[in-house]
Design a protein that fits this description.
Elements (H helix, E strand, L loop, with lengths): L1 E3 L7 E3 L5 E6 L11 E10 L12 E5 L4 H10 L5 E3 L3 H10 L4 E4 L16 H4 L9 E4 L3 H7 L5 E5 L4 H11 L3 E6 L2 E2 L2 E2 L1 H14 L6 H10 L1 H5 L10 H7 L8 E7 L2 E7 L3 H20 L12
Parallel strand pairs: 4-10, 5-9, 5-10, 6-8, 7-8
Antiparallel strand pairs: 1-2, 3-4, 9-13, 11-12, 13-14
Helix pairs in contact: 5-6, 6-7
């Protein structure tokens, strides 16, 4: 809840049990005084243990660090014109018939490539590839399933560490009332900490902290799934993929998801330099009030 003190309309008292709270400015008119501070809430959901009674409807970031949405970012860097996430293998082949120039990338659960696809779910495979504007169809066991699950959110993003800061900036520019981070990497035999680390990083950036990216990269390496890339006993889980996926803020674009002709589509999204400067200035002002109210900085995870 938010209470405005009667003797000071800029003094806010916040109560948000179990949720992170971020102060931010509403859009301003240059000829008028600035509006009151508003609240952006953040929360977490785990794809494999969803609570249908608290369905997010505002901004949703589906996170898959190892490797779906790291691979998607590298695909754009390789020149992909657009990316179509498709939940099923059969659906991917059907879409390829409609888009004969498209290339395919993906993996089944556990990371093995899909037979008949052009690439596995591997950023390393896409390094040095020139896609020259061709569309790319992506099918994976977790990340793409998460996008499909939340396709009706008001704003949907595909999140990973390599586009972390750009995603936070896109969210600040959007100014939703709530941001929901969906963790896709937690399974019965995996802690999913690579995705939780990414959510922690985004949360810290949205709170105006200056988190050390190395801390979160270390958690990707130390996660249950991350350690599997370091055993050198599975050619489909190469160490190079882990290194690329753990490179925070490698790219300056966010992965925004929309629906085009009944299909999900990923496109690159960048905040303008003017918007970045304005948003950072507004955030600093908001944090001064945030600290004055006694909330203090959000505690960061311990790297040790």
């Amino acid at each position: 809840m938010v209470h405005v003190a009667p003797d000071n309309p800029l003094e806010l008292c916040l109560t948000a049990a179990g949720r992170s709270v971020i102060l931010r400015h509403l859009p301003t008119n240059r000829q008028r005084h600035k509006d009151l501070q508003a609240v952006m809430r953040t929360r977490r959901l785990f794809l494999n243990r969803l609570d249908a009674t608290h369905e997010p409807t505002d901004a949703v970031v589906v996170i898959d660090v190892l490797r779906s949405f790291s691979t998607a970012a590298f695909a754009f860097a390789a020149g992909a014109g657009s990316i179509y996430p498709v939940e099923t293998i059969a659906g991917a082949f059907r879409l390829q018939q409609r888009l004969p120039n498209a290339v395919t990338t993906g993996a089944v659960g556990g990371g093995d490539p899909i037979p008949g696809f052009d690439f596995g779910n591997s950023p390393a495979e896409l390094q040095g590839v020139r896609l020259a504007g061709r569309p790319l169809i992506q099918t994976t066991a977790a990340g793409v399933r998460g996008l499909t699950r939340f396709r009706h959110a008001r704003a949907l993003f595909a999140g990973s560490l390599v586009v972390g800061r750009a995603t936070a900036m896109a969210l600040l520019e959007l100014q939703p009332e709530e941001v929901c981070f969906v963790i896709t990497g937690e399974w019965v035999d995996r802690d999913g900490d690579e995705d939780i680390a990414c959510a922690d990083y985004l949360d810290a950036l949205l709170h105006g902290e200056r988190p050390d990216p190395a801390c979160f990269a270390a958690r990707v390496h130390g996660s249950d799934f991350g350690r599997r890339f370091q055993t050198n006993d599975n050619a489909n889980l190469p160490l190079r993929d882990l290194e690329l996926c753990a490179h925070a803020d490698r790219f300056d674009f966010a992965l925004r998801v929309s629906q085009v002709d009944g299909h999900l589509q990923l496109t690159r999204s960048r905040a303008s330099p003017q918007s970045q400067a304005r948003l950072l200035g507004d955030l600093r002002n908001g944090l001064k009030l945030h600290d004055a109210l006694g909330f203090g900085p959000m505690p960061l995870p311990d790297c040790g």
